[in-house]
Amino acid sequence: MKLAERLHGAHAHRHGAHEQGGQFHRHDASGGGADTPGVTLEHGRRYDAFVDAFFFGRRSAVYNRLAELSGARPGDRVLDVGCGTGYFAQRLARIVAPVGRGGTQSRQGSVTGVDASAGMLEQARRSARSAACEFVVGAAERLEFAEGSFDIVTSSLMLHHLPPELRARALVEMHRVLRPGGQLLIGEFRPPGTRFGRRLIASVTGPAMREDMRSALPGLIREAGFTDLRTGDLRPWITYARAARQ
Fold it and tell me: Which of 53, 89, 104, 177 is the most buried (most CB within 10 A)?
């Protein structure tokens, strides 16, 4: 069993799939999660501990920088797709609903985190420190929000968990719920450049993390209807893409 499976409680789910060693199981929406063909992870506390270690102490700095790159401002309505334990959502909440003197929030923006995993959302609700954060069950490829509901849409380390045929659909959904002029930020895993490094990462995290989405991601974002695309990397493992809805 890989280290990641131990930390995740070996509860990664893929709808309709039963793969080697029981690593993936049929996702049961009756358990509170969303019905999706994508992989979902459970046991959020273990996941957070694993990712903290995996980022070599730079997780907070990386996600603070991603929050800045999102373009979020006080008062904005933000959607974080595949929010997991709410780690990124809480950093976004500090921007859109900053706490002023006396502990009051000076401008009431909001962050809605959506995830297919009820277990991850349970951890997100437990750890949330901002009243501006709300967490709901949902699937990235089927967002249950009206068109133009949000000023900012973000997603980090989520797209690689979707089957390739659903990634385009998820981005189209993100475009739909974003208002005209709104901003998109996608953060994805950037594997090591060497074959040995990729194999090492896969041995720890599983095969999905061997995929380098830097070549495919810009095209998927443009095909979903976004414009003004900008990309970059953050050490040690993140590649990001920023874009806008016209």
Answer: 89
The residues near 227 (Cβ < 8 Å, ≥ 6 apart) are 243, 244, 245, 246
The answer to whether residue 206 scores a pLDDT higher than 70 is: no
| End-to-end alpha carbon distance in the chain | 46
Strand partners, 230: 242
DSSP reduced 3-state for 152: strand
- The domain ranges of the chain are 3-9+44-244
- pTM for the full predicted model: 0.81
- The reply to whether CATH 3.40.50.150 applies to domain 3-9+44-244 is yes
The larger pLDDT score, comparing residue 110 to residue 11, is at: 110
Residue 167 Cα distances to 35, 112, 140, 142, 204, angstroms: 16, 20, 9, 11, 24
